[in-house]
Amino acid sequence: MRIVSKYLPPSTETLETRLINLDKPGEHLWIMTGAWHIANPESAFDPAQIKLMDRENLVAFAGPGCYKCEKPYSKQMSKRRCNGTIDTVQ
After folding, report:
1. Pairwise CA distance, residues 42 & 48, whole Å
2. What distances in angstroms separate CA 38 from CA 4, 19, 57, 78, 85, one per listed residue?
3. Which has the higher per-residue pLDDT, 8 or 17?
4. Are 66 and 85 in contact (CB under 8 A)?
5. Calpha distance 38→5 (Å, rounded)
6. What H or E segment, with its residue span, contains residue 13?
7. What are φ and ψ of residue 85, in 5° steps?
8. Cβ of 19: how many Cβ atoms within 10 Å?
9. Which of 18, 39, 60, 72, by CA, is between 20 and 30 Å from 85?
10. For the chain, which residues make up each domain, given as ranges?
C-alpha cells in the first residue's frame, strides 16, 4: 500500500518549527485542543495506518487558551501582555 503524505501528520521537526515561528515576545499563542478516541493505540506509531480523526471519534475540545502562559482566553486576558515563552512551557 502506498502511503499518501497528505494523510500523514506533519513531522515533529515541522511542528516544532511552526511553534517556534509563532513565538512572538509578549504575544499570546492562542490554541484549542481536541481529543479523539483511538481504538488501537499502537496505530499511532504506524505510518501505514491512516488516522481517522473525524467527528465520530472526537470526544473533547479544550480551550482556547494560551500555549505559552497557560491562561484561559478571555477578552481581558487577550489585552494583557503574555509573560510566557515557548521554552518555559516545554
Report:
1. 12
2. 21, 25, 8, 34, 31
3. 17
4. no
5. 21
6. helix 12-21
7. -140, 160
8. 16
9. 60
10. 5-89
- Dump pLDDT digits (tens) for 14-66: 999 999 999 999 999 999 999 989 888 888 778 777 777 788 889 999 999 99
pLDDT tier at 78, thresholds 50, 70, 90: very high
| Helices (H) then strands (E): counts for the chain | 3, 2
Distance between CA atoms of residues 55 and 26, nearest Å: 35
Amino acid at 39: A
Cell of 54: 473525524
- How many CA atoms, within 13 angstroms, populate the side-chain half-sphere of residue 34? 10
Q: 80 near 66, Cβ under 8 Å?
A: no
Q: What local confidence, expressed as pLDDT, does residue 11 receive?
A: 83
> What whole-number distance in Å separates Cα of residue 34 and Cα of residue 3?
25
Provide the sign of the torsion angle of the four alpha carbons 27, 78, 86, 22, taken in this order: negative
